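@channel sequence for tomorrow's demo:
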Amino acid sequence: MKERITYIIRNPKLGFEPSNLEVAKASISVSSLDGAKEHRITLALAEVPQELVRVLKNCHELHIRWATSREHDSIAPYVSRVTPGLHVFYTPLREKATKRLCSLIQKLFGSYLKCVSTENILINFWSAFTTPPNISGRFSHSASRQYFQPLESTDNLVAYIGQTTCSEHNYECKLRVHDLLTADYIDGDYDSISHAVNLRAYWSQSHLTDKLWWETHHIPANGSLEVGVLINETPDEEEELRYSGFLTQVGDDDKPSPTLFSFPARHHPLPQSSTFKASFRIPSGLHPTYSVQLPADSLTPPSRDCYLHSYLTLPSPLFIDKYPLSDPLFLASHNLKALHSISGATDLEAPDWVTDAWGSAVLFEIVTPPSAKESLEVTIPTHLRYLSPIDSRTAQGLRSLLIPYPSVFWACNAELGSQFSTSPFDRTNLGYDGLFGPKTVFYYFNPSGPVNGSGLANFLDVPVLDLNRTGAGMVEWGTVFVILVGTAWVCWSLMGDFVSWGKGGREKEIGNKSD
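structure tokens (generated this afternoon):
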């Protein structure tokens, strides 16, 4: 087991005092630190529970991304964002997908998640997963299968990790696992080349009352521990990130070692004022309009070769009709420039209860106004599928859908000489990054939640049939009655035509004989 814990100081101007790091023979203590934290753990397959190993051995690559719907800050280099919820990106080792993956997803994150484990014989992969398009080049640098579900809490995952990794009386282990409940995002990665499992969690700040980190970290048994405290510095090149600070290899170093380094980065922050809000227009109806608002002072691109994009992951009850979006005039009326990618459940007529796929993923390019003097509202026309009826005395004929915020970013072409070598801070398989070329740099807008505190997601109330309401049974039997009456009328009409045809034929035959 290898552990790497990295702190990024929130305010570079204040710096950091090395005296706040206390190094011991097998531990290190951090005190009064204001900043973000990433905790990364690398495991060999022998250190992973066997039920997970059985699934991983059938995977060429597996990437799990979970992001909270709580509003939070992003500090470089941890600025990349996925839409709030659970994302799974997966490439099978063989053409035939393992049948255990859906069961594992439901065990780790909740049995209520929509994940159909029935294999589709015709296309040879689960209908719960979708296949993202490869539009960035001949060879895709992202996984071949995609899955998403809105998920507000990681209670199930935290309980599973605690049960499988912490002994009954290891309270320190249980406390560290419990801290995952406050993480802003959690990642899990595996590939069949390295045969290693990488886990990492990110916190934008401490959740103690004073918002400061006060922690002691110990070297794991048969493992290593590295702790870094880094400060963002001004880089020499626009596409680079530069850091100074202190690194400590616990068990080998007697004191923190100063460090200074820089590297080309794909993911960059925008100023804190570069925010956006997303909501559904009221009333929503059965064809809701999704609105994304961007303030005027955030519409200046980082460089000339940058294009504004929005990436949405829509659960199966909500979908986008791609056919009108091929019309440039229709796109322009919504402040959209192009629909670059849409994949997943796009059947216009299918109700939700026959749609096995998780939903659809959509990438739009947004119109960039010539002058950033006014705020910009982007509207995205969506449609609702017919949903299953409810049987509840409190829902009042409404089913509530949780629709996550989109990701909004500038996608910029890097300089010709830029080389994006893999760094410990790089984050890939985000859903949209595979839709761009390998030399694309992303600059992220900061999502701003509504004043009512519902987080980075919108609740959409959809009218459905309520089986408990008076008249629901009458509608059911009335429908059956109308169908029977209609069928009887059609049969009667056909029988009348048949009798008339037969009578006319006999009269004609008699007339011929008399002649």
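heads up for whoever presents: The radius of gyration is 29 Å.
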